[in-house]
Amino acid sequence: MLHYFKFRQDLLDPVPARDVYLKRGKGRGWPEECPPIRAANAFGFDILANFDLTFVQNRGKWKVARDITIESDFAFASHEDSPGAALVQQYAWFWQKGQKLPHVISDNVYKVIDNQVKVSSFLFLKTDQNELLLVTEVPNLRRPFRATSALIETDWYPASYPWHVVLELDRSAKRIKIKKGEPIARVIPVRRDSYFAKQMPQADFEAFFDRGQEWLKTHGKFEHEAAEEKTVADITGTYVRQQLKSKFVVLG
Q: What is the b/e burial string over 11-27, where b = at least 16 CB atoms within 10 angstroms of the residue's CB?
């Protein structure tokens, strides 16, 4: 399970991902009509932008148009007898040339990643034992920014700060806007395990292939394409009916 706590309770929760993100025009054959693509679109939780964000590029240098820093609605005290104070969190910030902390960035490396910006989720995140969080871009959604993929070991690393998402901005753009409520990244809980790949023996493949042909005969609607002189099977309706999709729910 994904466990989270918001930096401030008026901020946005993660939300279950959706089948469709783009409003298409007329016509048939849009990618979102494909059941496996819809299933991928809806797999995981979306991290939403808590505020409007605008990034501006001038002479190859990126900046945040309006810097946002907020305070938590809870207080932290380093000692039991201290009065405590709210935490402070910046919303978006870039790598710094010549930075030493939290890690060193060489000047030649900075030139490659100076279009990357860190955007706070304002979420403290943890998972159950042997569950990790894959942070990545929203599938099949092409925008002038993309989330850098990362696998976070949230089952043992007790981060005392809200997790951020690293966005890579399109260098060809001059201005990039992200609206409040727009998904900026996808988080997917995954199991820590051993995964294997192995080629099937010939006999296993023959059984697999024969099973596939029988499934097509039972469920497929066949049509002949004269131009290519081949017969193709339409399995769309059957695939949807037999598909078992995962569920992602945010509990109240």
A: bbebeebeeebeeeeee
Helix (H) or strand (E) holding 147: strand 145-147
Kindly report the pTM of this predicted structure. 0.90
CA distance 167 to 173: 14
Query: How many CB atoms lie under 10 A from the CB of residue 167?
Result: 24
Q: Under CATH, which architecture does the 2-191 domain have?
A: Distorted Sandwich (2.70)
Query: Could you report the per-residue pLDDT of 191-234, keeping only the tens digit for each?
Result: 999 999 999 999 999 999 999 999 998 888 777 655 556 667 77
Model pLDDT for residues 85-134, shown as the tens digit of each residue: 999 999 999 999 999 998 999 999 999 999 999 999 999 999 999 999 99
Hey, where are the domains in the chain?
2-191, 202-242
Which position has the token pair 């023959």? 206
Would you say 162 and 122 are in contact if contact means Cβ atoms under 8 Å apart?
A: yes
Q: How far apart are CA 33 and CA 232, in angstroms?
A: 18
Contact 114, 59 (CB under 8 A): no
The tokens for 144 are 């002038």
C-alpha triplet 61, 65, 70: angle, nearest 5°? 120
* C-alpha neighbours within 13 Å on the C-beta side of residue 198: 6
Entry field: residues in the chain: 252
